[in-house]
Design a protein that fits this description.
Arc Repressor Mutant, subunit A, about 230 residues, six-stranded antiparallel β-sheet, globular, SH3 type barrels
């Protein structure tokens, strides 16, 4: 029987998954900031999740999901990203605004409604920000990509996804035409920022913003297309 968790616990499991997927582990201080709660509240909730076998927590190292916790997190993430698609594709909401609203909607979607929504949307593979939507059985179709901060100089890349979906971050990136599908080329690295061309327009991004933009090389795209053609 699947473990039932509260909406608050769902938010924690989803946030832990995001940090774990990005850096291998979630720090309690990061969770407090991400969820806008006191550090003491994070500690108490983590202990509760650990008691139910959903997370492992090593003091001073961080929190990781167990297999049981990850299964639940992927279901939540599936509902969240399909809710984002509903907001953009059906309701014509701005892509920069949908993350926060999807956080509320995801808790109201039953498994049956989620299936119906996925079918109505045409079985999308990614959310509006380019992040993969887990399948019904929890499979995640990840692309080979890496942070913009690790891009080679003067090499053209395609923006694949945004892993920080907060409204203010997305608005800042959108103002520079940085979104999934955009072609980018890093031309300079400074002490606090990188300089790049986006659609032949020059701009700068601080390292925090650049690290949330994942890109894929043109070679990887070409190889993927050739592999698909062979199949």
């Amino acid at each position: 029987m699947e473990t039932e968790v509260s909406h608050e616990a769902e938010e924690y499991l989803e946030a832990i998954y995001r940090f774990q997927n990005r850096r291998g582990v979630a720090k309690t201080t990061e969770l407090a900031s991400e969820l806008d709660v006191a550090l003491g509240s994070v500690t108490n909730t983590i202990q509760h999740l650990k008691k139910h076998g959903l997370v492992d927590h090593e003091p001073y190292r961080g929190v990781k999901l167990t297999a049981k916790g990850e299964k639940i997190a992927l279901k939540i993430l599936r509902r969240h990203r399909l809710a984002e698609r509903l907001l953009t594709d059906i309701l014509n909401a701005k892509w920069s605004n949908v993350h926060e609203d999807a956080c509320k909607l995801e808790h109201a979607l039953t498994e049956e409604v989620t299936k119906l929504l996925e079918r109505k949307l045409g079985y999308p593979k990614s959310c509006p920000h380019g992040n993969p939507i887990p399948s019904e059985n929890g499979k995640m179709g990840e692309e080979t990509c890496h942070p913009l901060t690790e891009a080679s100089m003067n090499k053209v890349y395609t923006v694949s996804r945004m892993i920080d979906e907060k409204r203010e971050k997305l608005l800042a990136l959108t103002s520079k035409s940085i979104m999934p599908g955009a072609k980018v080329r890093v031309v300079e690295r400074k002490s606090s920022s990188i300089v790049l061309y986006v659609a032949e327009k020059k701009c700068a991004l601080d390292y925090d913003a650049a690290s949330s933009v994942l890109v894929k090389s043109m070679e990887n795209e070409k190889n993927a297309r050739q592999k698909k053609a062979v199949i």
